[in-house]
Structures are given as C-alpha cells and as structure tokens.
Amino acid sequence: MIDPIFKKIEKKKIKFIDLWFSDVLGSVKSETIPVQHLKKTLKEGIWFDGSSVEGFGRIFESDMYLVPDPATFAIIPRDEERTARFICDVYAPDHRPAPVDPRSILKANLGKLHKEGMEFYVGAELEFYLFKRDGDTVLTLPHDRVGYFDLGGDLALKIRKTMCDRLQEFGIEVEAGHHEVGKGQHEIDLLYANALTLADNILTARMVIKQVAEEYGLYATFMPKPIFGAAGNGMHIHQSIFRNKKNLFADSRDSYGLSDLAYGYLAGVLKSMKEISVITSPLVNSYKRLVSGFEAPVYICWGRMNRSALIRVPKISRQKFNSTRVELRSCDPSANPYLVFATVLRAGLEGINNKNKPPKPVEENVYKLETNVLKDKGIDLLPRSLWEALEYYSQSKVAKSALGEMLFQRYYDIKLKEWDEYSIQVSKWEVDKYLELY
C-alpha cells in the first residue's frame, strides 16, 4: 500500500502532508509536515502536545503521537500548496492506542466483531444549512427559498453539485444529494461503507462542505437547530452487519425482512438509546431539534413507513436483500461519528448477546397518539435536554464498556461543563418574556 502512495506523491509533486485526527468532540485537528518527513512519520509516528486538545491529556500527561493510516491517504483537491492528507490514530507514550482517541475506540469495538468474522456497515445522511454572510458575520438567513426535493434553478443546485464533485475527488462515494425541508437546507448522502471508513468520510465531508460554501461566499452549518420554527439538521445512520459479503440482518421470510440477529440488534439499540443519547445528540442545541412537529424522533419505538419513529426499517427493492438495514433517526451531524458508531454498535450487540426482543412495531403517527395510548404501548421518550441525557449516560454500563472508563469520564466532564455554561446564560427570550412583566 505504501509504494503506490509515494508514486502518487511524486506524480502530483506533493509538497506537504496534513495529518488529521479527531478530538473527543469530533472536531478535526491537524499537524502539517513537509513531504520529505513522511516515510519516517509512517514508520515511527510524530509527537504532539495532547494537553492542548479537548479531552485528550492533562499537562502532566501531554506527550502523544500520531500514526497515519495509509488507507486514508488522499490528495486534497485543488490545493494550491500541493498537499495530501492522512487520518491518524492517536497513541500514548506507552506506544499503545490512546484511551481517549475516538478513532481507536471505534477500532477496538469493531475488532470484537471482526473476531467473529463480521463487519459493521453504515451509511449516513448529512443535513446542513447554507447561510448568507456579511463579511465575517454569519447571517441566519437562508440563501435560497426552495423546499424539499425542489430543483430550484438557483445557486443552491450548483453549490451542492460542487460539494458532491469535490467529495468524489477526495475518494468519497456520494449516493445522492437534494434540497431538504427547510429554506436553505440541504442533504448529501454518503454511500454505505465499513464503519471506520464511513466515520473518516463524515469528518472529511463536513470539512469539504464548509470549504465549498466559503468559496461561494456562504456559510455551511451542521448545528442541529439553527433556526427557531424551522426543520433541524439530522444525520440518519443506516446500519447492518455482514459476514462474507452476506447481510446478516436479512431474512426474506420475515414480514419486515429482518433476521433474528437484526431483531436482537434493534432491541438493544432501543433499550440503550436514553443512555447513549448524549453521544448521538451531543449539544444543548440538539434537544431543541428533538421536538414534535419537525419529523425528528421523540419517541423510542420502531416501524417501517413511520417517520415519527426513532428507528425505521426501510423497505428494499425486490431481491435486494443485502440492502436490508435499520435506520436510526435521532443522531445529528454535530456528533462525533467514531463515538456514535462505537456506542450504537455496542448497544446493538448487547441486544444480540442477551437475545433481547424489540416491542411491537408502531406504524401510526406517534406524535398524534394520546399520552395514555403511548403508556399502554410502552413507548418511552428520548431525553428532553442535555442535562437529562447526561443523567442517563452517567449510569450507563453500555456507554462505559464501549468508550472505556477514561474517555467515558472525560466526555461526561466536557458535556457537564457545557451544560453548566448554558445554564447560567440569560437568553433574549427570557429578557423579552420577563423583563417588563416582573
């Protein structure tokens, strides 16, 4: 794998190498080296100060190093400085994967599946808004007025095609792109891949989408709920488990097309969703998206044609059994994809190992069901705030086993601090509501 990389570097006259890695929250961090140091870096890694990265290290445990993954090599499209990129794993001074590195955490969880000869596949739908700018100021004003699947004829279509084209140049397969419900809202769907590749692709896609928007004088945001009263940004994830190119979730004899393994997985995810919600919906703002009336899921249930359900089983084309999957709809694109896939997978595997059975599917609009009907059906609610999600997370054995004790605690501390900062803010709504009333 290494020799073809150096042939491409020589052919394209690459001068610099960007080494990307993810912090605990899923933000991309980078260190740049001249290309002549790449061989040594691939062999030995490169040291950096982990104490400067959110959630990584304290001052007295700062030394960490990056190890590039050759499978992630890509030449950055249309870069004037002639730069290539690797995504890296983060290692601790003991030369083991750092217990706070999200990518290493996902690889460890996938490794347990690989021992059984199985592979976890995921597809993702990335939603985002494009806003106008006034110089350096971002205006929460959509740049177009068209709606869901509209062709438009405006600049939006050209921008989205540019984004898809740039992603393809990066080696990322795009399945589809279209306008979403909100004015100025868009969706780009990333093609199914193994979970590690897809998590890498999400990190890259978020960077590319923002960069292209900036080239057009706009701002792209993955904030879950950037506009009051408008649709929020979700990141629906489609999941299945394969062995030897066979989809183990598929059973053509079942009315929903699901195997016993898939039902166990589904049951496990439903059972643990409250506990891992702070991973799939990680911001204070995430819970302003998870409200009734905007197609975002609120209730913990599943169905097929029901877009008000937390988990949906999409209908597949005839004889396309390898496309069988379950779609989790509560995730949003601000989440760290490595941690999302690690925790959701662990929850699903717990369901399989414990032979859990999911509740009966719900095909009616859950938003319109009376409270007593919801109770009779045993339908529970997702957490309604980051604080509530943290309370469930703090007691979660599933999350702790997926993330490891150190990252589990670091993540909790970061998010608790975020909640505390939010809690003492005085919002415009409060001033408008109470100032003259009391």
TrEMBL record:
Q: Name one GO molecular function term.
A: glutamine synthetase activity
The EC class name is ligase
Enumerate the Gene3D superfamilies for this protein: Glutamine synthetase, N-terminal domain, Glutamine synthetase/guanido kinase, catalytic domain
UniProt keywords (A-Z) are:
ATP-binding, Ligase, Magnesium, Nucleotide-binding
* Listed cofactors: Mg(2+)
SUPFAM superfamilies of this UniProt entry?
Answer: Glutamine synthetase, N-terminal domain, Glutamine synthetase/guanido kinase
Using the record's annotation, list all stretches that form the GS catalytic domain. Answer: 102-438
UniProt EC number: 6.3.1.2
The reaction(s) catalysed by this protein are:
L-glutamate + NH4(+) + ATP = L-glutamine + ADP + phosphate + H(+)
Domain GS beta-grasp: where? 12-95
Q: Which InterPro entries match?
A: Gln_synt_N, Gln_synt_N_sf, Gln_synth/guanido_kin_cat_dom, Gln_synth_cat_dom, Gln_synth_gly_rich_site, Gln_synth_N_conserv_site
Note the Pfam families from the entry: Gln-synt_C (PF00120), Gln-synt_N (PF03951)
GO biological process, any: glutamine biosynthetic process
Family to which the UniProt record says this protein belongs = Belongs to the glutamine synthetase family.
What's the name of the protein?
Glutamine synthetase
Organism annotation: candidate division WOR_3 bacterium SM23_42
